[in-house]
Amino acid sequence: MKKLLIALTMLCIIALIVGSVKAGSEGSSNGTVTVTSAVPTLSSVELWNSTEDTDKNNTALDSDNVEYHLNFTVSDSNTMKDLRNVTIIAWDNRGQIEADSDSQRYHYTWTYVNSTDTWSCPLSANYITTGNCADASGSLTSTSYEFRLAFKLSKVANYSNAGTYNGWQVKIYVYDEANNTATFGQGTGGRIQFGVASYLYISVTDTTHTFSAAPNSENTSVSAGGDSKVDFTVIANRVWKAQVKSNSATVNKTVDIKFNIGNITQYGSDAVGSSVSLTTEYADVTGITSQAAPTDEASPSSKGVYLWVDIPNGQESGDYTYTLYIQIAAG
Amino acid sequence: MKARIVFLIVFLFLIIQLAKIMAEDTAALGISDYEVKATVTVGEARQFEVARIKNEGTLNLTVTVAWLPEYNTSEAQIELLFYPQKIDLASQEAAMIYVQVLNASQTGNYTGLVQFTTDVVLPSNASGSHSIPGGTAHAEFHVVKTTPPPSGGISLPDLSGITNFLAATYFLPLIIPVVLPIGVLGLKRYRGRPHMPKPSTLKIRFPKRTKNMDTFYQNLFQQAESPKQPKAEPSQKEPTDEELWDAFLKRTDENAQAN
Q1: How far is CA A314 from CA A209, A214, A258, B17, B83, in A?
Q2: Residues of chain A contacting B60 with CB distance shorter than 8 Å
Q3: C-alpha span between A263 and A213 (Å, rounded)
């Protein structure tokens, strides 16, 4: 009997073992592997001229709509498909902050959106050359790609000495689909910065001007473009002033028939009593000094130089000419 | 009918006048001033970018470049070469202006303005005196002059008058006490290094009877990683490279046979 019990017990154990083995071979277990979102990284950030043969980091850039390239490598272990967008900000760090709104004078933003494969500059398409930008749209399965922003600055982008931390700063943000962010620029250890070269532009609207006066007359106003001032427009990226001079010491009919250039006087507004004589050296135009730079290059500052002439008694009739130079200088 | 024709003529006249006003010629110059600040040795052929100028108007410009010195502390004169010195710029054309220092009467600082004077070809129907644009760029040169080497001496830059030049402050105090001892120490260490065979005398022969190459490389790496051998006694004859290599090959063969 005892033996029978032992045999039965053994049989049950064997049956259980066989049963469990059999059950294991016929069942299934669903496995899930979760690939987490890796944080993107930014490296090799460089600022170049448009031919990429001159390093422009810490140098003065032209504000005159000249193209520059900001190159940077974006890496993401989840591949470039995982990128959502790239944002690049440049701002004048003297009195402006990164979060300020865009303006031609002080602040620029450029963006790349991966889903639509589009580069843009919300301020104006004038400040980005989308055809020269580079992105990973053709290499979405790669884990690293060198991006390129081809950008320009407005003519009124604020003047700044190059190579100072108080100049223009650049910051780059890369976001992936999980909102992980890579950042480069001020406050992150890396830094790209630049100055903006002084830019002064003058367009003389009234390229000719005339006086018509009788001998022994005083303070006859000039006639230029339908009014009594020589008009010009200015675009600058710093405080500016207007200066004028004559090309010669005399106003000439012939070599021998002439009168002194000092008989022509100039001023920045219609106030002959305050006017000063023209000379052959540049002199400030009173009233057109310490002028603020325009905020939009499409809206230049419009100014005019008022001129008057005194004709000496005994002057022969006829046409007398000279050349008036107008220039814009800092200050 | 007559009234219509008159109206049409007046209307056309106004359109033409408006078009004339819209198409008014302008003389315009844009200057990107790089405010060049350069330290130069007289006679050296380095060039510097002074400014980029652009004809922003509708009329063709001829631009002439000249130097206007300012703030010179003495009668010192500097001779500069600008190029181009004169350039024709069609509408929307731009040019870079460069400068080179040809000569200076004294070392020191020279500041001044680069004057851009324009000449404009106005339409033949233009009458009256011309009003045309000009402009300037700033430039500053720190001039140092190389003096001829005195007999038995070395030639050093003449830094007299360069008060704000870094090298003037640190040149002698830094170069002589720091660089000279480093050079002497380096020379001593170089002389103390053991003789290394010239690359052309290093011959590599592979063992003929090696059973497997693993053993060969094992010995090669062991030799490479082994600590430096103490310097041989001066009285002992130093084995030649050939002898050392033969001994190494022999040991390789022995190890191979043992394996």
Answers
A1: 23, 10, 11, 39, 47
A2: none
A3: 12
The CATH code of domain A41-196 reads 2.60.40
Structure-token match 């001159």, residue found: A54
Mutate to test the interface with B, among A201, A209, A259 (most CBs of B within 10 A): A201
Which residue is associated with the tokens 């930014």? A42
The pLDDT value recorded for residue A15 is: 55
Non-local CB neighbours of B139 within 8 Å, separated by 6+ positions: B35, B36, B37, B50, B67, B99, B111, B112, B113, B114
Q: Which residue of B has its CA nearest to A62?
A: B32
Minimum Cα–Cα distance from B135: chain A residue: A327
Looking at residue A317, its amino acid is: S
- Helical ranges in chain B per DSSP H: 2-22, 166-174, 180-192, 213-225, 241-258
Listed range (A130-139, A269-278, A291-300, B113-122) with the worst mean pLDDT: B113-122
Read off the pLDDT of residues B141-198 as tens digits, 9 standing for 90 and up.
Answer: 998 875 544 443 333 333 333 333 333 333 444 445 554 565 556 556 555 554 444 4
ipTM, interface predicted TM-score of the complex = 0.84
Token pair for residue A294? 């325009």
Flag whether the pTM goes above 0.95: no
Structure tokens given for A47: 């600022």
Interface test with A, best of B129, B130, B138 (most A CBs within 10 A): B129
Going by CATH, does the domain composed of A200-330 fall within 2.60.40?
yes
CATH 2.60.40 domain position(s) in chain A: 41-196, 200-330
Beta bridge partners of A328: A242, B135
Residue B29: closest CA among B140, B120, B125: B120
Q: Is the pLDDT of residue A257 over 80?
A: yes
